[in-house]
Amino acid sequence: MSTGSPRVLPAGGDLTEAASVLRTGGLVAFPTETVYGLGANALDARAAARIFEAKARPSFDPLITHLADAADLEALVGAVPADVAALAGRFWPGPLTLIVDRPEVIPSIVTSGLATMAVRVPDNEYARRLIATAGVPVAAPSANRFGQLSPTRAEHVVRGLGGAVDVVLDGGPTRCGIESTIVDARGDRPVVLRLGALPVEELEKVTGPVTVRQGSSGQPVAPGTLAAHYAPRTPLRLRDAGALPAQDGVRCGYLAFRDRPADGWAAVEVLSATGDLTEAASRLFDALHRLDAAGVTEIIAEPVPESGVGRAVNDRLRRAAATWHVTN
Ligand code: TXA
Ligand code: MG
Question: GO terms for molecular function, please (predicted)?
């Protein structure tokens, strides 16, 4: 754990200093529409190495490169396959990460040695202004320590990474609250490598049928999508269809989709009282951060309906629960 604390600056203020920290090899955490990113100059191998160190991230887990504008893609990588161009044209800026060939200028540490690179244009004006002002592509994973909950507020970043990051731009809570959807659209039929904030149904309107091929265990398809991932410190268990599990006198937390459970829980979070999946996704990590801080010994989480962005919510819950099964 790093000691010290980062400089926290308002994302709506003057971004020249943060941009210069980025350009000169420092680490700047910034808001995107999905989660906060931990940014470094993607052209600078040493800066990228600092990301892996700050997160305690294994070197086999490649980073996503962020651009300020969709038009910057061609300048960086040249022409891209038709489906990649179509998806970028339709959904950027937005919560969609696309796989392209890694250009020479991007050091291989950024892609963990892969010949491909993940890239996106975030739909957050502060993020895009920061990247544009820095004038370089920005490599940024989620700004949490490896395997832990993704940050949806600047406070989460400060608490999780502390002085390991130079500057944190505070842009308030993120809009989507769940990471981008990752798609490899270079072949005949696009492949979803990570479910995320952009629903599969939306992709299919542009490209026709896609394949969802997520790594769940063993060798993951997107190397970072390990089965045990996105986990609170508190053990988490998925509620199955049956009756509520007995609490055995221990202090349990409950993560509900829409209906508040009967009394008896030490802490309860409801993701969306109206049953809205987009709202539920936006509140997921925030709710888990709060349950984690509530001093409960176990969290029981209810799955949400398996459609739209609900698939990504359930994916994150299953991964959080997998950690519990591994360690208990
Ligand atoms: O919403 C997001 O995508 C956030 C914000 C900050 O943009 N970023 C994010 O980054 O979630 P991270 O590092 O937590 O997850 C990146 C994922 C990992 O699972 C990694 O394995 C995968 O992207 N990835 C990166 N490059 C890849 C590549 N060339 N091929 C396949 N998967 C790749
Ligand atoms: Mg992450």
Answer: ATP binding; double-stranded RNA binding; L-threonylcarbamoyladenylate synthase; tRNA binding
